[in-house]
Amino acid sequence: MASGRTHELMNLVFLPPALYFVPKEVYVPFTAGYLLGTFLLSPDMDMGHSKPAKRWKLLRHLWSPYRAFSKHRGMSHLPVIGSLIRLLYLILAFIFIYFVLLGALSLIKPELTPQLLKLNPLDLINRFALSQESAYLIFGIALADIAHVFIDVVSSKLKHR
User: Does the predicted TM-score (pTM) go above 0.70?
Assistant: First the structure.
């Protein structure tokens, strides 16, 4: 298995050729997704000591339930499926945090509740999901995962030789 540094370096090497196949209008969301997939939403989020997990700083604890259900090189390393599972997990975690904060704030400062209700996470997710840019952002994350898994496979084959 390749090291975190190798994964990140190789993913960065694969980015320019990948951009060749992406329409110029969506370079930014695709590249943002690819970099998110490489540095923050890597398949190695299933390991608490991985570089991507450590980059979340204090929020890395948000990923503890994910790690409890995902063995290393398990579902997190399934190309595309692993990416979608991590994105869904992240969305559900932030929705949960939103409602916990909403409940706590309604008890502590009820006058702020209407402002927080205006920020409806489900509406934001719906608007995001319907945009073309979101498809390319998700495509970038998935392609970064595919590169990660490819590097793992090649690295394992070379080590066994």
Answer: yes
